Amino acid sequence: MQVSGYLKLSVAVALATIALKTAAWWVSGSVGLLSDALESLVNLAGATFALAMVTIAARPPDDDHPYGHHKAEYFSSGFEGVLIGAAALAIVWTAVQRLLNPQPLEALGLGLALSVLASVLNGALAWSMLRKAREVHSVALEGDARHLMTDVWTTAGVVLGLGAVAATGWTWLDPLLAIAVAANILREGLRLVRRSVGGLMDEALDARSQAAIQQVLDGFAHPAIRFDHLTTRRAGQRRFADLHMHMPAGWTLRRAAALRGEVEQALMSAVPGLRATIQLLPMDVEAHLDDPRDPT
Predict the structure, then answer these.
(1) How many CA within 13 A on the CB side of residue 93?
(2) 10 Å Cβ neighbour count for 109?
(3) Do residues 115 and 159 make contact, with C-beta atoms less than 8 angstroms apart?
């Protein structure tokens, strides 16, 4: 299944979990279950926005975007983070009101059963989406999957907490639990926003990818060939590496280009989704990357 297919499924599951968790809150009156239902609304909005951004990211390069639209996925990750933060604040507000005005809970058994069923749906989908996200390096898909997984842990906390309420009769545990849930999902929201900002700021590739690139270059290096000025960045599912390859000045352009092609192919095989740009230079020539007129 393609990334867009997973996100469409995420939208459908979000609609189903909203119905189940809203029903769970309705029959029980638990603010903890209400917080769980509110997060599912955020799941729906996040999945819908992620689907839109993935569609944009898949567009081919054009005159206005010659390097493609891959970074659109980072907007999805950041948007989900902001939505999570908004949901957390809404949960805290509702929980504080309930803490000041405690109310008895009703039909907890049915409410918890409905919430657990919704959580099972989210958990199964999140696990599948995370596997696909790692396979294709999709930031949008990973963000939506982690959001769903946060929802699973939220439900687990709510279920345990309400079990304690039922056992002790301490209704004030319910709003306190909702506040704890809000703190947990706010942490996840901040992480997603930070990940989005890092991508938009052309963050370098992860250590594992850089190690794979260096291993390939070490395999081609010898006294007549050397590589330097390696820089990497990531844009959505696409990865980029720029570097210089130095070789003997007496080589023909055909021979140099042939070796460069071998290096590029090896790099792309070692790091899926990589696009390598290699500048050819004679062994005794160094590139001047810093312009003294550059104000930075």
Answers:
(1) 7
(2) 11
(3) yes
For the chain, the domains span: 3-200, 207-282
CA-to-CA distance for 295 and 97, rounded, in angstroms?
54
C-alpha closest to that of 152 among 187, 118, 177: 118
Separation of alpha carbons 89 and 79, rounded Å: 16
Residue 77 to residue 53: CA distance in whole angstroms:
10
Q: In the predicted model, what is the mean pLDDT of the chain? A: 78
Please check whether residue 231 is in contact with residue 289, taking contact to mean a CB–CB distance below 8 angstroms. Answer: no
Amino acid of residue 194: R
CATH code, residues 207-282:
3.30.70.1350
Q: How far is CA 161 from the centre of its chain?
A: 29
**What would the pLDDT profile of 135-166 be if each residue is shown by its tens digit?**
776 767 777 777 777 777 777 766 776 777 77
CATH fold for the domain made of 3-200: Alpha-lytic protease prodomain-like (1.20.1510)
